[in-house]
Amino acid sequence: MSPSATAPVDASEQAPTPPASGIDTFFKISERGSSISREIRGGLATFFAMAYIVVLNPIILGAGTDKFGHQLNNGQLVTATALIAGLTTLLMGIIGNVPIALAAGLGINAVVSLQLAPKMSWPDAMGMVVLAGLVLMVLVASGLRQRVMDAIPSGLRRAIAIGIGLFIALIGLVDSGFVSRNPDAAHTTVPLGLGVAGRLQGWPVLVFVAGLALTFILIVRKTRGAILIGIVTMTVVAIVINSLAQIPDAQWGLTIPSVPDKVVGSPDFGLVGDVSLFGGFHEVGLLTDCLFVFTVLLSGFFDAMGTIIGVGEEAGLTDERGQLPGMGRILMMDGVAVAGGGFGSASANTCFVESTAGVGEGARTGLANVVTGGLFLLALVFTPLAEVVPSQAATPALVVVGFLIMAANVKEIDWGDVTIAIPAFLTMISMPFTYSITNGIGLGVLSFLLLRLATRRTREIPWLMAAVGLCFLVYFLLDPIEQALGVS
Predict the structure, then answer these.
(1) Which parts of 63-121 fold into alpha helices (H)?
(2) 424, 409 in Cβ contact below 8 A?
(3) Cellular component per GO (predicted)?
């Protein structure tokens, strides 16, 4: 959407005026044809479009169990999610001066919860995220980030995003109870089934189905804040149903849908700083740990770059080469957000495409981010409200986000080139089917290299891509290699 397609503004706001304050001068508000009122309005719109992450991120991270059987506390996760989102969004606004808000990335949090944590402790897993952020900052400082991005074919990058979207959607279906795992005792070749014994049972699943329908309707009607509206509405519905039907707490999944004693509470910062940078190397070994860091890095690497350019273009801030002013600072803040998310145990933070909601309201500078970040920090004292949301009211958002990710990327893949189409297909299906984002990326990279070699298109293989493929080859063959070397 071009800048001209954004929401109408007041006549008094259409003509830039000379800087009238230090804030105007610092953020270049008038220079970019905006106004303080438009920036405030844009910051509010962005916050309400992405505030769902304060509820959704704790559900995804809270669903995971580490190697020692530990789960993260929901209240502490809500605090960590809001805190890091607020701080990183403020930093991007003040240092990067762009209206691009950040929060815990969907997809990356699934990697941390379902892949890293089961192999190590939670502090070790969050340490991997911090290391990925540090690597990202080094790549930005050295100028290698663009080169690494260019090494992965566009079609494969799109497939990685789609695979993550399908993975997220499957998590939503399973966590809601709409889909459940068939026990091995059933002796069936179908690993998953509808509801319980092939039937949808109970009020909580009905809440999920109704929430999914409502959210999709709001999406179709282009309602701003559709995901957040869906979560809030179905939470109220769940509370009413629970009060009338007295449903056992266990059926609701993560939380009990009852009104908290108070809406304001003291934030619990217990997870902030609870990280171990190198503990994971002891648990899983150097190679596997490096691949984990690489997976976290890759999961948010390209999505963040695309979001930055996309939001910048919509705001009319890019030049003829598609570059934003101060791109180096913007990319560095993205790396800081990844590391900061790990340090806060909120998973890697990344740029949110929902920032386009604020741009649509007229935001053009980092002042909008100051508003959005401030609201996230204000949300810290309202954590009891977030804890009241049952999983069935929030998981429709996972399915919807999965759809949105797929819709935005599938048409960009060149399905006519089988050396891209086949790796893309394997990448997309492997992530949900193997319940592993790492496996999906690995199979996609290796199949791409194999098909390019088979078609004698070796000159089209960047050396960085070949190096990544070699790492994944060792990863998949790690067990026979260890047996051959006599390493346990």
Answers:
(1) 74-91, 108-111
(2) no
(3) endomembrane system; plasma membrane
**Beta carbons within 10 angstroms of residue 181's beta carbon:** 10
Q: What is the pLDDT of residue 262?
A: 62
Q: Looking at the domain assignment, is residue 19 inside a domain? A: no
Q: What is the DSSP letter of 199?
A: B
145-173 tens-digit pLDDT: 767 666 778 888 788 878 877 887 887 88
DSSP state string for 46-66: HHHHHTTHHHHHHHHHHT---
Please state the rounded mean pLDDT for residues 294-311. Answer: 70
Hey, which residues does 349 pair with through a beta bridge? Answer: 104
- List, in order, residues 6 or more apart from 339 with CB less than 8 Å away: 129, 130, 132, 133, 134, 136, 137
Task: Find the domain containing 197 and state its range.
Answer: 28-479
Q: Is the pTM of this model over 0.85?
A: no
State both tokens at 431. 């992530």
Measured distance CA(97)–CA(100) in Å, rounded: 9
- Which amino acid is present at 454? A
Specify the number of domains making up the chain.
Answer: 1
487 assigned to some structural domain: no
Listed residue (302, 290, 289, 293) closest to 145, CA to CA: 302
Reduced to 3 states (helix: H, G, I; strand: E, B; else coil), residue 125 is helix
How far is it, in rounded angstroms, from Cα 77 to Cα 62? 8
Q: How many angstroms separate the CA atoms of 360 and 386, rounded? A: 27
In a domain, 393, yes or no: yes
Say if residues 70 and 82 touch (Cβ distance below 8 Å). Answer: no
**For residue 230, is pLDDT > 60?**
yes
Mean pLDDT computed over 357-382: 88
Q: What is the structure's pLDDT at 254?
A: 45
Q: Residue 218 above 80 pLDDT?
A: yes
